[in-house]
Amino acid sequence: MTDTNKAGSPQGFGSAQEMAEDFASDRDKTAHLLDEAVSKAERNRNALEKIWQDLQALFRLIKTWRGGDYPQAPWQTMIFAIAGVIYFVNPFDLVPDFLPGGGYLDDATVVGFVVKSIRQDIEAFLIWEKSRGEGRGQQG
Prior knowledge:
With 140 residues, the protein is mainly alpha-helical. It has one domain. Helices cover 61% and strands 0% of the residues. The protein contains six helices and no strands. The radius of gyration is 14 Å and the shape is globular.
């Protein structure tokens, strides 16, 4: 996994990362978080077009890991992935989502940061997913 320390992370991501430890240890909390994230993503799909594929891959990675089907994902990778989703779900992050024109810009920045930081692990997951005949058409 790529370096995933808080140095160089987007503003506000550190607190999401701290919360992610708690979510990662609780399957029900993680399931609820994913439900919220998928719902928010679907409602705002047009605004999220540029990050849609990466966001969906994060959702699937977390769901598959949480369900026990993909236990090989490193713990720190999952903390990072879950932190990205926590940030995404939070409507009052750095730039509140209800602000026209820029509300999802910080979400896109954080999702991009997370994906770049854990790129190797996401690629390994996508290869694993493809080998099982799963993937892109599915949701988190």
